[in-house]
Backbone:
C-alpha cells in the first residue's frame, strides 16, 4: 500500500476540482477519493452500440443513427420542433420543446445524425423527446462509448458528465494505489469471486456485454459483493453503538424476591411461562452494572405490560425510578390504570405526565419526579422529549407499539441522555426496555434491531379463544349490523372501524361521524360511541373509559384504536373497507378483541372488486391469528420498506444493498460482522467509515 491511501486524498486533488466544485461535492458527502469510489451508480445505459430503429423497444434508452427526412416547427399546446430520422429499418420522430434557429437549420434533410434518448410511443409512432444528438458530417463518425454508461445518484449542481470524469480519475488512482480490503477473504464462505477492486471497477465502468439485466436487478455478483459488505458495515455500526452504550455504567438493580412475590401475589392471574422467561431475562439484565438494551417482541395481547411492570418493581425495590413512555394518551392512561391497580398494594407511588396536565398540577408532578417521591413515571413519549428531571432514573421502558426507526430510537435514547444528565454525577445510564407489538420477521429484526437483545413472548395467556375471522362483501352490511345487535343484546361490546383512503384526519373523522349516526339510527336500543383522531386527548380518554365501563355498547372508531387498547368484554370487531389496510394494521386492530374469555369474532368487510394483493391479505387474516406468520407474509407481499414502515427504512439508506432483495445475505452478514469484531477489530471502524462515513447516520448518537 502506498503511503497515502484514497481515504486521505481530498476530492480537491482531482483535475478540474476547484473550491466551488469541492464545496458541492462535500455537500453530497463526498470528501475523499474513497467516498467517490463508493459513490455507486444507480443504473446504467448502453451507449456502446447503435440500435436499428426498427428494433427499438419503447421505454428503453438507445443510440440510433439515421438521415434527417425533414423538420417542422409545430404549434400545438407548446411550440415544438419535430424532426424525422430514418435508417434502413424504420423512422423515428425527434421532438424538441426548447430549440433555436441554429438547431433547426442544422437538422436539414439529408443530414446524418446520431441520437441518444429514451424512446416512447407517440402520436406518430416511436418518438424521442429532447434526445442528445450529434451531426455526423465528418468523414469519420465519433467513437461509441466503450463501456456501459453509469448514471450516478442525482447530484445537484454537478453534472453526470463531471461525476463520471471524477470517478474515472479516481479509478486510475485506484489502479496505482489499490485500496484496503477490510473484509478478509477468510471471513466469507460465499462464492462471489470478485475482489473489492474488481467489483468497484466493474460497477463504475461495466465493460460492454456486462449483463445489464443483472445490473438492473442489483443481482450482478459484483453488486452482491459490495451489498454484503455494506450490510456488514451497517450491522457493525449498530453493534458499535451498542458497545458504546454498554461501556457506560448502569445501576445494578438486584433481584428482590420479596417485592417480586408481593407483586405477583396480588395479580389476578399467573404469568405464562413465556412471560416468566422474558421477565427473568430482564431481571438478569438489569442486575448487571451494564445498561440493558432489550426489545420485547410479543403478539398483541401476549401480556407485555405486566412483564415490564416487573422490571419497574425491581428498579423501585433498588431505590431507583422507572419511566414508562407510551405512544398515545389513551395508552398512557391505560398503563397508568393498570400500574396503579398492580402497584398501589405495594405502596409504590406513580407520577403521571401528559399533555392535559398543565400549570400547577404539572409542576407538582415534575417536582415529585425530581425529588424522587415519585417512583414510577408514566406518560407519553412527547413529554419525555422535554427535559424531565429525574431523581435517579434506573430503567426506561418504551412502549412503541408501532416500530420506530433506528433514528427515532436513538433520539429517544438521547432523551435518555437528557435524562441521564440529571444522574450523570453518579455516571450512570438507565437500563432500557422496548416493547413492540408488531412482530418483525427474523431476518429484518436482525438488521433493524442489531443493537438490541431480543426477547419474544411467544405464548398467549391461557383461555384465550382464537378470534374467528370472516371476510364479507359489504353488500352484506345489513346482516353484519344485525349481528352487532345480537351480540350487544347478549351483553357483549363491539368495535366498528372506519377506514379511509385519504390521509386526512378531517375526512376520516367525518366519515366516522356519519357512520355513527347511521348505526345509532339502525341500532336505536344501543348506545353508540365515537372515537377518532380529531378528538381532544381528554375526550378520547373519556370515551375509552366509558367503553371500558360498559356504558357504550358499540364504539365506532377510526384506526386510532389500533394502539393497544384493552377492553376484554369487547368481542366483536367490524372493519369496513378492510382491503385498504395493510396486514400488520389489520392484525393490530383485530388484536383489540379476543382479550376476554368468550370467543371473539372479526368481520372484514370489503368493497368489490378486490385486487390480487387485497384478496391475498384478507385470506391470510382469515387463516391465521399468529402475528409472526402474518409478519412473514406481509414481508412477502409488500417488502421490507412497508413492513418496517417507511419511517424505519427511510433511516436505512443503502448505497447498493436492498433489504428485501438481499435478505438471503443477512445471516451471513451477521456472522461476518461478529467475526470481524472478534478477530479483526481494527478493520471495523475503517469499514464503517467507508460505507457510512460522513453521513451522520449512526455512530453519532
Ligand atoms: P400487549 O402485549 O398487547 O401489550 P397487554 O399487556 O395489554 O398485552 O395484556 C393484555 C391483557 O392480558 C391485559 O388485560 C392483561 O392484564 C392480560 N394478561 C396479561 N398476562 C396475563 C396472563 N398471564 N394471564 C391472563 N391475563 C393476562
Ligand atoms: Mg401493549
Residues:
Amino acid at each position: 500500500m502506498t503511503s497515502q491511501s484514497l481515504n486521505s486524498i481530498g476530492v480537491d486533488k482531482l483535475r478540474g476540482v476547484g473550491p466551488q466544485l469541492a464545496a458541492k461535492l462535500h455537500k453530497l458527502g463526498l470528501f475523499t477519493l474513497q467516498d467517490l469510489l463508493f459513490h455507486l451508480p444507480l443504473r446504467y445505459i448502453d451507449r456502446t452500440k447503435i440500435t436499428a430503429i426498427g428494433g427499438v423497444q419503447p421505454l428503453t434508452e438507445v443510440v440510433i443513427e439515421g438521415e434527417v427526412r425533414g423538420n417542422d416547427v409545430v404549434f400545438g399546446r407548446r411550440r415544438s420542433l419535430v424532426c424525422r430520422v430514418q435508417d434502413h429499418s424504420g423512422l423515428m420522430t425527434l421532438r424538441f420543446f426548447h430549440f433555436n434557429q441554429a438547431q433547426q437549420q442544422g437538422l436539414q434533410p439529408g443530414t446524418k445524425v446520431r441520437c441518444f434518448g429514451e424512446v416512447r410511443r407517440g402520436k406518430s409512432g416511436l418518438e424521442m423527446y429532447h434526445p442528445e444528438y450529434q451531426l455526423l458530417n465528418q468523414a469519420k463518425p465519433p467513437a461509441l462509448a466503450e463501456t456501459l454508461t453509469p448514471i450516478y445518484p442525482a447530484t445537484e449542481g454537478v453534472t453526470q458528465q463531471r461525476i463520471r470524469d471524477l470517478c474515472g480519475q479516481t479509478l486510475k488512482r485506484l489502479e496505482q494505489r489499490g485500496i484496503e480490503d477490510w473484509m478478509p477473504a477468510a471471513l466469507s464462505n460465499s462464492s462471489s469471486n470478485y475482489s473489492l477492486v474488481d467489483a468497484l471497477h466493474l460497477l463504475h465502468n461495466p465493460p460492454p456485454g456486462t449483463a445489464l439485466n443483472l445490473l438492473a436487478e442489483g443481482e450482478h455478483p459484483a453488486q452482491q459483493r459490495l451489498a454484503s459488505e455494506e450490510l456488514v458495515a451497517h450491522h457493525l455500526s449498530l453493534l458499535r453503538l451498542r458497545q458504546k452504550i454498554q461501556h457506560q455504567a448502569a445501576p445494578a438493580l438486584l433481584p428482590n424476591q420479596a417485592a417480586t412475590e408481593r407483586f405477583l401475589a396480588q395479580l389476578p392471574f399467573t404469568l405464562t411461562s413465556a412471560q416468566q422467561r422474558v421477565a427473568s431475562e430482564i431481571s438478569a439484565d438489569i442486575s448487571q452494572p451494564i445498561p440493558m438494551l432489550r426489545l420485547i417482541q410479543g403478539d398483541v395481547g401476549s401480556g407485555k405490560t405486566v412483564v415490564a411492570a416487573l422490571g419497574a418493581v425491581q428498579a423501585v425495590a433498588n431505590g431507583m425510578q422507572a419511566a414508562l413512555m407510551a405512544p398515545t394518551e389513551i395508552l398512557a392512561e391505560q398503563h397508568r390504570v393498570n400500574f396503579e391497580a398492580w402497584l398501589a398494594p405495594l405502596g409504590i407511588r406513580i407520577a403521571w405526565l401528559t399533555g392535559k396536565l398543565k400549570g400547577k398540577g404539572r409542576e407538582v408532578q415534575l417536582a415529585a419526579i425530581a425529588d424522587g417521591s415519585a417512583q414510577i413515571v408514566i406518560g407519553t413519549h412527547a413529554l419525555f422529549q422535554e427535559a424531565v428531571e429525574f431523581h435517579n432514573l434506573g430503567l426506561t421502558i418504551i412502549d412503541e407499539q408501532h416500530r420506530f426507526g433506528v433514528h427515532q430510537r436513538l433520539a429517544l435514547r438521547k432523551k435518555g441522555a437528557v435524562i441521564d444528565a440529571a444522574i450523570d454525577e453518579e455516571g450512570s445510564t438507565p437500563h432500557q426496555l422496548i416493547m413492540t407489538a408488531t412482530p418483525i420477521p427474523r431476518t429484518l429484526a436482525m438488521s433493524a434491531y442489531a443493537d438490541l437483545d431480543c426477547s419474544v413472548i411467544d405464548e398467549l395467556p391461557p383461555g384465550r379463544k382464537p378470534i374467528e375471522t370472516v371476510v364479507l362483501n359489504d353488500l352484506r352490511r345489513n346482516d353484519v349490523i344485525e349481528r352487532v345487535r345480537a351480540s350487544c343484546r347478549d351483553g357483549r361490546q363491539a368495535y366498528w372501524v372506519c377506514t379511509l383512503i385519504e390521509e386526512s384526519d378531517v375526512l376520516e373523522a367525518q366519515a366516522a361521524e356519519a357512520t355513527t349516526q347511521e348505526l345509532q339510527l339502525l341500532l336505536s336500543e344501543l348506545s353508540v360511541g365515537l372515537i377518532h383522531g380529531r378528538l381532544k386527548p381528554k375526550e378520547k380518554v373519556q370515551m375509552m373509559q366509558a367503553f371500558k365501563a360498559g356504558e357504550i355498547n358499540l364504539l365506532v372508531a377510526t384506526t386510532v384504536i389500533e394502539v393497544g387498547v384493552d377492553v376484554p368484554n369487547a368481542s366483536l370487531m367490524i372493519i369496513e373497507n378492510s382491503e385498504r389496510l395493510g396486514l400488520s394494521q389489520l392484525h393490530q386492530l383485530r388484536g383489540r378483541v379476543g382479550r376476554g374469555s368468550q370467543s371473539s369474532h372479526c368481520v372484514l368487510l370489503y368493497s368489490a372488486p378486490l385486487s390480487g394483493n387485497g384478496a391475498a391479505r384478507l385470506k391470510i387474516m382469515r387463516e391465521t391469528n399468529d402475528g409472526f406468520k402474518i409478519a412473514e407474509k406481509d414481508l412477502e407481499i409488500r417488502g421490507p420498506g412497508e413492513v418496517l414502515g417507511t419511517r424505519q427504512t427511510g433511516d436505512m439508506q443503502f448505497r447498493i444493498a436492498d433489504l428485501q432483495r438481499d435478505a438471503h445475505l443477512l445471516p451471513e452478514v451477521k456472522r461476518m460482522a461478529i467475526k470481524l469484531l472478534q478477530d479483526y477489530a481494527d478493520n471495523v471502524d475503517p469499514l464503517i467509515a467507508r460505507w457510512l462515513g460522513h453521513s451522520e447516520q449512526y455512530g453519532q448518537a
